[in-house]
Specification:
alpha+beta, Structural Genomics Hypothetical 15.5 Kd Protein In mrcA-pckA Intergenic Region, Chain A, Pseudouridine synthase, 3 domains, 23% helix
Length: 311
């Protein structure tokens, strides 16, 4: 039959359900039509009738009937990234191997789109394919206003491994926060239940358990502190809310610091929270700790305040 294709399943698609495979490569194909093509045996896997829920194996052959329009829809759907944005997003890469990419995300750039957010990392992933067949996948997020480390998976296997590792908090993440105020202790653990209340989260017995370890790296009198914080849970705005709860809101935080930052001329109009370091050793079975350099405005403000920090 003219136009019929026999397509081999790529290793990147090993384990993918058949219906999701068609959604990926033929996004113009409706679920109803897919079911009809399967029912009438126009779509087969290794020459046999298949169900849409079939888990594919690398190397299997899929018989695909003529789906020219649906395939063209796949081409149209591909994310277009301008040359300027491609160069920009590639400049953020600080680590790359065949399985992962790590970016040093600037403050103000969202990870994903939303209301009034049209420029974001998710929309530029096509420019991070490099030598791979597919664009990398998001496996975790950081706030739009937080700068620093963002890990991407370059294949399906590592997308699953990383998603599980982040969900189960197997990978230690370390943040640096420039704060107004100084903690009473030089190190400790902040434990509280956090509850979403409008655009903020607040401590509440009705909230979810949240735990953050912290170490004070340097202080200036009782005015400023540089704090290293490691979240042991993954609640929204956890570090921001926890540091405010001990009297040390993060500089530049509209939600948890507010207008007070205007008292200090050396502060940029930025959030001074940076995802600084991540330990990927458990994933690689060897020592692999990646650091993201602090932004210039962060370093300049530390120096202006009198905080001593050596990367």
């Amino acid at each position: 039959m003219a136009g019929v294709e026999i397509v081999k399943v790529k290793s990147a698609d090993d384990g993918m359900r058949l219906n999701r495979w068609f959604l990926k490569y033929y996004p113009g194909l409706s679920l109803g039509r897919l079911q009809k093509l399967l029912r009438t045996k126009q779509i087969k896997v290794d020459g046999k009738k298949a169900e849409s829920s079939l888990r594919l194996l690398a190397g299997q052959e899929i018989r695909v009937p003529p789906l020219d329009e649906e395939k063209q829809a796949a081409e149209i759907k591909k994310d277009f990234v301008s040359a300027k944005d491609a160069a920009f997003i590639q400049s953020l890469v600080i680590f790359k191997d065949k399985n992962i990419l790590v970016l040093n995300k600037p403050s103000g750039l969202a990870v994903q789109g939303g209301t009034n957010t049209t420029r974001h990392i998710d929309g530029m992933l096509e420019a991070l394919k490099f030598d791979a067949d597919e664009k990398p996948k998001l496996v975790h997020r950081i706030d739009k206003d937080t700068s620093g480390l963002l890990v991407l998976a370059r294949n399906r296997k590592y997308a699953e491994l990383l998603t599980k590792a982040f969900r189960e908090h197997q990978l230690q993440k370390t943040y640096l926060a420039f704060c107004l105020g100084v903690p009473k202790q030089s190190s400790g653990v902040i434990r509280s239940k956090l509850l979403k209340a409008g655009e903020k989260v607040v401590a509440s017995p009705e909230g979810k358990d949240a735990v953050t370890e912290f170490d004070v790296l340097d202080v200036v009198g009782n005015k400023f502190s540089l704090i290293e914080a490691s979240p042991l849970t993954g609640r929204t705005h956890q570090i921001r809310a926890h540091l405010e709860s001990i009297g040390c809101p993060i500089a530049g935080d509209d939600k948890y610091f507010g207008e007070s930052r205007k008292k200090f001329d050396f502060l940029a109009d930025k959030l001074y929270l940076h995802a600084y370091k991540i330990n990927l050793s458990p994933l690689y079975n060897k020592k692999l700790v990646i650091k993201a350099d602090l932004p210039d405005y962060f370093l300049e403000s530390l120096k202006a305040s009198g905080i001593n920090f050596k990367e």
